[in-house]
Amino acid sequence: MRSKLVKATAISLFALIISGCASSDSDEVQLSKQSATALYKQARTSMELGNFTKAVQTLSALDSRYPFGAHKTQVQLDLIYSYYKLDDSANALANIDRFLRLNPTHPDTDYVQFMRGLVNMQQDSYLFHDMFNIDRTDRDPTYAREAFADFEKLLISYPNSRYVKDARQRMLELRNRLARYSIQVAEYYMKMDAFSAAVNRAQLVVETYPGSDSTKRALEIMIEGYGELGQQTLQQHAQEVYSLNFESGE
């Protein structure tokens, strides 16, 4: 009885696999029969409905079959956005870099540069942690640095872009994120009595991320660290900066 059940299950699974392959092949055949205009219309409909998996499939077919078609540039832009919506950072970045390499003077390069920042920012975020409000400022900030650099490049290269305002706001968020990470490192050094390393990291926060929400704590670490190191002049200077910025209104 058990062997019959196993055999029946295996047959069912095989049938499902065959059915899936047949469906996939049928979709590809269907796409191959359509014109560039029809394919693009279908892709846009999928995007509007939020079906970005289907949109990527159609756009990729369009990009492959009509690489020099009338919609070629918009297809590349839509692929970037669709991969971003699917959280497929690797393919999004690959298409972004390809677009910037092949279309350096295109009027939408500011948008693509902005999307590069969004994709890297997306890689830095943790949806699970965001949902449950879990503080993970100790995670590797590589993607946050990349995103900050992407937005900074947008501001420098395209100062009149419509995306500048949004990029600036995101840079503020990233600045705070990077500053908090450095504070975490400085706090660790303080616990290990590595006071020189701690004050150096805290000073980096003050100088590299001015105005961040970690500036106050950075100065506190510098005051304490310089005190432990017996560097009274530097401690006094840090105290003066702290008093000027955080005690004058208290």
UniProtKB/TrEMBL annotation:
- The protein's superkingdom reads Bacteria
- UniProt-annotated location(s): Cell outer membrane
A single Gene Ontology CC term: Bam protein complex
- What does the record list as GO biological process? Gram-negative-bacterium-type cell outer membrane assembly; protein insertion into membrane
Q: Which UniProt keywords apply?
A: Cell outer membrane, Lipoprotein, Membrane, Palmitate, Signal
Query: Where is it mostly found?
Result: membrane
Subunit record text: Part of the Bam complex.
User: Which HAMAP family does the record match to this protein?
Assistant: OM_assembly_BamD
Family membership, please give it: Belongs to the BamD family.
Q: What is this protein called?
A: Outer membrane protein assembly factor BamD
Can you name the source organism?
A: Paraferrimonas sedimenticola
In the UniProt record, what gene is named as encoding this protein? bamD
